[in-house]
Amino acid sequence: MERGVPIRAISRAISVLSAINRSGSATMMEISKSAEIPYPTASRIVQTLLHEGLIERESARKRYRATALVHTLSMGFQAEDRLVVAARPHIEALCNEIKWPISLATRVGTRMMVRDSTHKLTSLTFSNYYPGFTLPIAECATGKAYLAFCSDEEREAIISGWRATDNETSKQGLLIVHDDSVLNQIRADGYALQMRNLYNAEPGKTSSIAVPIHGNDGELIGSLAIIYFASALKAGPAVEQFFGPLQKTALAIQRQIETAV
């Protein structure tokens, strides 16, 4: 890495803005905890973001939320929408079949971003996860599946991102890739599990199983997950019930993308 990179203050500001965006609105204590930044530092960053107009304080309570100005940060980004378009009818069909919500995610840096979901189509969910919601790669099923099946070059880029930061999620990521046992098991199984999801709106109440989605020429383009109540199913029955339909749907999405080209 270049000397002096990353700039810690910028990294922390991005973490704070991301934490606010993930939660919809949050208190200072929640922002500090989610961003893994000391409270006084988080407070100074929040004041800066308020000054720049990227966030605002809710008038009736001490909570902060992102403003429409954050949309301008994505104006130069040309999104690949073909995956979402191709996947939508298939994830709706799967949700109608199994009743549990489905999420489609792609990698953004060291996190997985929800690109589409069916949480609004079922009552078997605690929260609706909107496009743009992100989760640490090493601590979600879609991320683990992606990490196992991506190219060596892409995996090294993810690892470099972890090494450039100093927080619990990056440490967990480096622990997973310390040897090949975890990723080799995911490759052999064809799926990844995350028991008791922690980085969501209802920590510990849901679990997930995910499979990779490939595009043209076998290129890895994302992951597909089923999210279910942790109290409803143990890992074994969940795999037995969901892996087949999930894998079938991922292949259907791949074929849809291939025929659309």
Summarize the entry for a quick read.
The protein has 261 residues and is an alpha+beta fold.
Based on CA inertia axes, which overall geometry fits? globular
Task: Tell me the major beta sheet.
Answer: 6 strands, antiparallel
Number of helices: 9
Strand order in the sheet with the most strands: 5-4-3-8-7-6
Keywords summarizing the entry:
261 residues; alpha+beta; six-stranded antiparallel sheet; two-stranded antiparallel sheet; 9 helices; 8 strands
Could you explain how this protein is built, in words?
With 261 residues, the chain is α+β, with helices and mostly antiparallel strands. It contains nine helices and eight strands. The chain has helices at 8-23, 28-35, 39-52, 82-98, 141-149, 152-163, 168-176, 181-189, 235-260, and strands at residues 55-57, 64-66, 102-108, 111-117, 134-136, 192-194, 206-214, 220-229. It has a six-stranded antiparallel beta sheet with strand order 5-4-3-8-7-6, with helices on both faces. A two-stranded antiparallel sheet has the order 1-2. The longest helix has 26 residues, at 235-260. It starts with 7 loop residues before the first helix and ends with a helix.
Topology (elements, then pairings):
Blueprint: H1 8-23, H2 28-35, H3 39-52, E1 55-57, E2 64-66, H4 82-98, E3 102-108, E4 111-117, E5 134-136, H5 141-149, H6 152-163, H7 168-176, H8 181-189, E6 192-194, E7 206-214, E8 220-229, H9 235-260
Antiparallel strand pairs: 1-2, 3-4, 3-8, 4-5, 6-7, 7-8
